[in-house]
Amino acid sequence: MPEIQKCQLQSAKDPALSCGVTTLGDLICPHCSSIIVTPDFIFLKPDAKCCPSCHKAFVLDPDTAKIANRFHASFLLGVLK
Ligand SMILES: [Zn+2]
């Protein structure tokens, strides 16, 4: 199953930066503002992730994951209709 690369946070002392989310359910890197496309039919789980552009760690918190999954599902439903 393809999924966004997992990433260990550098240390517990690092501020846990939360990512943003687009209306398509894609994630936005809090470090470099890259949009990280969520693969189709992938259910995002709250976790530490790694940005493919700047390779810095960020956190997908449960609330953001919920929002991203909802946006992503409605985008897919719109596409599949
Ligand atoms: Zn980044």
Oligomeric form of this entry? single chain
Order of helices and strands: EEEEEH
Structural class category: alpha+beta
Q: Describe the main β-sheet briefly.
A: 3 strands, antiparallel
- List the bound ligands: zinc ion
The count of β-strands is: 5
Total count of helical runs of at least 4 residues: 1
Q: Portion of residues in helices?
A: 10-25%
State mean pLDDT (0 to 100 scale): 86
Gross morphology is elongated
Structure description:
The protein is α+β, with helices and mostly antiparallel strands and 81 residues long. The protein has one domain (20-76). The chain has one helix and five strands, in the order E-E-E-E-E-H. The protein has one helix at 62-80; strands at residues 20-21, 27-28, 35-36, 47-50, 57-60. It has a three-stranded antiparallel β-sheet, with helices on one face. Strand 1 and strand 2 form a beta hairpin. It is elongated and about 40 Å long. Zinc ion binds at residues 29, 31-32, 34, 51, 53-54, 56.
Offer a few descriptive terms.
single chain, about 80 residues, alpha+beta, two-stranded antiparallel ribbon, 1 helix, binds zinc ion
